[in-house]
Request: fold
Amino acid sequence: MGEGSKVLFSIFGVLDVTGEVVAMWLIVAVLTVLSLLVKSRLKERPGFLQNLLETGVEYLDNFLEGLLGREKSRKYFTFLATLFIFIIVSNYSGLIPGVGLTDYVKAPTSSLSVTAGLGVVTFFFLQISGLRCGVRHYFKRFVSPMFFMLPLLVLDEFVKPASLALRLFGNVFGEETVTEELYGLLPIGAPVVMMVLSILFCALQALVFTMLTSIYLDEVTELE
Reply:
């Protein structure tokens, strides 16, 4: 957990629940309900909400297709799109008035435990995707071009998700910390400017995480 994370309560005395975890549960619940509602009300002539969501999905599809190609982007779209949507909504949740300034609800991606969880999920997804391309190919890439590269390439597999988690946590936590300090020093004006800049910053962080994951995915599935 990042600095400043406060344990609100524990589950069975083992799992500590912080404000970031509470926000994560809320975001997952809201996204799930919204997805089910949109799915149940799809129309040939879309309304405003459906049209807005379809436009967003189309832009994301084009973005991933540019990184992976059409076939791969469609195959892995569900995972990558879910990753992007969760991260960007989590990032933007920190812009809601009061979020980040209270211990009860905080942007999930401002907690290292949450971003580390995303890194772990990404790690296993990459390994499983690589194994599906063939066990021989999966292990061969660790000894190419030279066998002595094995330790470095194995280490690199663990460094990739760790760097993704630390980069996302550091940037979001840093942004929230700066905003909170500015709020304490100058309650009017400065925090507003920071929050306006964060609108672009939050989207950029989600894009970077998804883009790097896509690049790593393309590397481990190069035989597809």
Helices lie at 19-40, 48-68, 70-75, 77-93, 112-132, 135-140, 150-185, 190-220. The mean pLDDT is 81. The first strand starts at residue 7 and ends at 11.
